[in-house]
Amino acid sequence: QVQLVESGGGAVQTGGSLRLSCVASGYSFSSYCMGWFRRALGKEREELAAISYLGGTSYTDSVNGRFTVSKDNAKNTLYLQMNSLKPEDTAMYYCAADRKRRFSCFGAGYSDWGQGTQVTVSS
Q1: Closest to 82 in 3D by CA, of 2, 34, 14, 27
Q2: Of the candidates 72, 3, 69, which has an alpha carbon nearest to the alpha carbon of residue 36?
Q3: Cα dihedral sign for 31, 56, 102, 93?
Q4: What is the DSSP string of 56-110?
Q5: pLDDT of residue 94
């Protein structure tokens, strides 16, 4: 059974940093695409970052240069380092897996999702 569990969310002030983690189990974590998404209150889900099975990364423009996605295959863990946080980054953050794709991960058809972790940035 595939399971994704996020952690690391919290409340920070503008300009602060957080690192989100997503521990995966139940499948071969190192072999497939992984991504980070967020959904702000009243808004549609937004894809933020993706990482291929070889570690290639892609980002949406709004977080490029501020957020960094990485993974530790030995720990079956995906990370999202978030720096220079802004109030508009306030949202529920989710990790996701696409167990049918290894490359071209941004915009992939993610089918497995975590429960989310809340990030709140105050001004």
Answers
A1: 14
A2: 69
A3: positive
A4: -EEE-TTTBTTEEEEEEGGGTEEEEEE-S--GGG-EEEEEEEETT-SS--TT---
A5: 98
Does residue 122 sit in helix, strand or coil? strand
By DSSP bridging, strand 10-13 and strand 3-7 are unpaired
Digit-by-digit pLDDT tens for the chain (123 residues) are 999 999 999 999 999 999 999 999 999 999 999 999 999 999 999 999 999 999 999 999 999 999 999 999 999 999 999 999 999 999 999 999 999 999 999 988 899 999 999 999 999
The pair of three-digit structure tokens given for residue 28, joined into one six-digit string: 């071969």
Residue 55: both structure tokens together: 């570690």
